[in-house]
Amino acid sequence: MGMQALERRLERMVVGVFSRGSRTNIRPIELGRRLVREMDDQRSIDVHGRRVVPNHFSVQLSQRDFDSFADIDEVLRTELVEAAREYARSEGYHFLGPLSVELVVDEEQKPGRFDVAATLRQAVDGAPRPSTLVLPSGEHVPLTDATVTVGRLSESTIALNDQNVSRRHAEIRPNRQHYVVVDLGSTNGTMVNGVRIHGETVLSDGDIISFGSTYVRFEAS
């Protein structure tokens, strides 16, 4: 189930922006499959009995292939991170720190070929990172005990210049050990992972929240 979701996610890139004028034979789905293979091969059991897997992946490419990915570098890395996160969630894997993917040049790599170096990286100083909302710009909005407001109003915590977003669209609130998203009767509604919500909805790591045409990712601590 996890692999199928990963493949569907990355195939969308092939039929989308990636397919237009690509100068490399390496497909995003190949990178995604290699990432999850590294997770499967390098999984281990920590002191709490959890299955822990690498959370940092360095994709080593030839200069030509690296240059070919330049225009979609940010989108590609984001999609690979989300695909890996979905796969880990489906397999019950845990990460010791933030999940990240980087593309690097390997001068000895031949065009059309690549390697992936996967490593376990703990959060800095072992301190837990706060839950955050990741905006389309890549900016992180840390979540605290305060309610986060979302809407077109300038005083909103997350003010969105999106005509499909209502003036007071939604709120994200702390609720015991979780965060919940609440739609405030917006015109176009609020969705979590493509499903329109009604009332409070508890957020899980990696959930994609859509307000109108704007998508935000929730990252749990």
Which descriptors would you attach to this protein?
five-stranded mixed β-sheet; 221 residues; alpha+beta; 30% strand
List the secondary-structure elements in sequence, H or E: HHEEEHHEEEEEEEEEEEEEE
- Strand arrangement across the biggest beta sheet: 8-7-17-16-13-14
Q: How much is the radius of gyration in Å?
A: 19 Å
Q: How can the largest sheet be summarized?
A: 6 strands, antiparallel
End-to-end CA span = 25 Å
Tally of contiguous helical segments: 4
Which residue ranges are poorly predicted, with pLDDT under 50 across at least 5 consecutive positions? none
Indicate the overall shape.
globular
Average predicted confidence as pLDDT: 84
Percent helix = 10-25%
Count of DSSP strands: 17
Describe this structure in words.
With 221 residues, this protein is of the alpha+beta class. The protein is 24% helix and 30% strand. The chain has a six-stranded antiparallel beta sheet, with no helix packed on it. Strands 10-9-11-12-15 form a five-stranded mixed beta sheet, with no helix packed on it. Helix 1 (2-14) packs antiparallel against helix 2 and helix 1 (2-14) runs antiparallel to helix 4. The mean pLDDT is 84.
